[in-house]
Every structure is written in structure tokens, then in C-alpha cells.
Design a protein that fits this description.
Number of helices: 9
CATH class of the largest domain: Alpha Beta
Strand content: 15-25%
Distance between the termini: 54 Å
CATH topology of the largest domain: Rossmann fold
Radius of gyration: 20 Å
Shape: elongated
CATH architecture of the largest domain: 3-Layer(aba) Sandwich
Helix content: 25-40%
Largest sheet: 6 strands, parallel
CATH superfamily of the largest domain: NAD(P)-binding Rossmann-like Domain
Strand order of the largest sheet: 7-6-5-8-9-10
Number of strands: 10
């Protein structure tokens, strides 16, 4: 691999952006395709399919055989709420390769005994979430039922282009939640991204079943063809602080 390709590859990986190295098998020629350039690439459809799956592989193209080496950032799951559902959800997510973080300022719930081997942060979301560097390869789930915890966390997740955002609660509960978030400046387009009631509709009733439904919906969002893994331009994403400031000014 050429030095300039290796250098660019390392830069993209450090920035948690997906990148693909295309190698023409017959000639050995290589080129690097960044996420921002996929839409203009002649192999757009093939590259998008491999990025969605996260798998490298050989492909036949009109230009001959190529090998697509895929580098996708590790997926992360951030949960607000050290609750019973989280106790089942965290190990399932870890089994699927997610880096899991649970945020809950309620120290009676956020204990290592209840969540062994999980990154646990017993702080309020406004303190805990910004340092995590939440991004497009992060799934976010709000499970506390406490607006003081979940609402600011959801605003932060919406501002960070998470590929999945879900929130626990009935449709009636979610309706009230949407009203609160609108009052804080979130627009209807952003709020439509929240999956609520959270999880696939499989008739789940127990915390472990709800955890399975949530992880199933996250997987569906990550892997299905309509899921866009191209990053939204930073200029188009309003930080939660900006949303709050605009709401106060209006």
C-alpha cells in the first residue's frame, strides 16, 4: 500500500469515518474512497453495500475484479438509564460487537455490581455525554422515563447524527416528550428520527424481551439498504447548545 493511501487511511480511521480501499486485482492498482466521496465513485453501489455490511470482499465489475477492503468504525451503544432493560440490553449489544456505555446520575442504580464489565458513568447527561464523542456510528437509547435525564440526552443525540435513536415509553408518553423537546427548539424533522415506542413490535413484555426488540431494531437500522452511512455535513448538524440558545431567543 502506498504511503499516501496509508496516511489517509489512518486519518479517516482516527476520525471515526468509514473508508474503503479499492484494489484492482489484475494490476494491483489501489485507491482510497472516503465516505464523503462514495456518491461520486463509479463503484458507488458496491461500496455502499460493503460499508453497510462492514465486510470486505471480492467483486466483479466492468473494469475487472476488485477487492474492497472496508474499514468501518466500531459501533457504539449509549444508554441513559441503569434499569432492568439495560441489564439485559448491555450484554446482548456487547455480544454483537458494540462498545456499550450507560449513563445515569442515580448512583443507587448505576453500580458496577448491576453492570459488570460495562462503561458506567454516574453523571448527568450534560456532563457525561459531550466527552464521549457520540457520532454517526453510535446508537442511542433513552430508558429512564425521567425527562430530566432523557430529554437533554435525546437533544444531544439528535445533534450528533446518531444512526439510531430510541426512547422508552408509550405513544402517549412519547407525545408529551415531543411537546417538551419542541419547546426546547427541536424541529419536527429531527424529532421524527426518534423510534418510540422503542424496539421492534414483537409483543415484548419482559425486560429481556424488550432488550431483544431494541437490539433487533438497531440492527435493522444499521444493516438495511435504506440506512445511509454517509455522514451528515457538520454544518447541517446543530449542537444541542445551539438548539437551546435558538429556542430561548425565539
Amino acid at each position: 500500500m502506498k504511503l499516501e493511501i496509508l496516511r489517509a487511511l489512518n486519518e479517516e480511521r482516527a476520525a471515526r469515518r468509514a473508508v474503503v480501499v479499492v484494489t484492482v486485482v489484475e494490476s494491483g492498482e489501489q485507491r482510497l474512497v472516503k465516505t464523503a466521496d462514495v456518491a461520486r465513485d463509479p463503484l458507488k453501489d458496491l461500496i455502499e453495500a460493503h460499508v453497510r455490511s462492514g465486510k470486505s470482499g471480492m467483486e466483479e465489475t466492468p473494469q475487472g475484479r476488485v477487492f474492497l477492503t472496508v474499514h468501518v468504525p466500531p459501533t457504539r451503544l449509549v444508554i441513559t438509564g441503569a434499569v432492568h432493560i439495560s441489564q439485559a440490553l448491555a450484554p446482548i449489544a456487547k455480544l454483537l460487537g458494540y462498545d456499550v456505555t450507560i449513563v445515569d446520575p442515580r448512583t443507587a442504580f448505576a453500580t458496577p455490581e448491576r453492570f459488570p464489565d460495562v462503561n458506567l458513568i454516574a453523571e448527568w447527561p450534560d456532563v457525561a455525554l459531550p466527552p464521549l464523542g457520540i457520532d454517526h456510528y453510535t446508537a442511542f437509547v433513552a430508558l429512564t422515563h425521567d425527562p430530566k435525564i432523557d430529554d437533554p440526552a435525546l437533544l444531544h443525540a439528535l445533534s450528533r447524527d446518531c444512526f439510531y435513536i430510541g426512547a422508552l415509553g408509550s405513544r402517549k408518553t412519547h407525545g408529551r416528550r415531543l411537546d417538551r423537546l419542541k419547546e426546547q427548539g427541536a424541529d419536527a424533522g429531527a424529532l421524527a428520527r426518534i423510534h418510540a415506542p422503542v424496539g421492534l413490535n414483537i409483543g415484548a413484555v419482559s425486560p429481556p424481551e424488550i432488550a431483544v426488540a431494541i437490539m433487533g431494531q438497531i440492527t435493522e437500522k444499521l444493516r438495511k439498504a435504506e440506512t445511509k452511512l454517509a455522514e451528515t455535513k457538520a454544518a447541517e448538524i446543530k449542537p444541542a447548545e445551539t438548539i437551546m440558545a435558538e429556542a430561548k431567543a425565539s
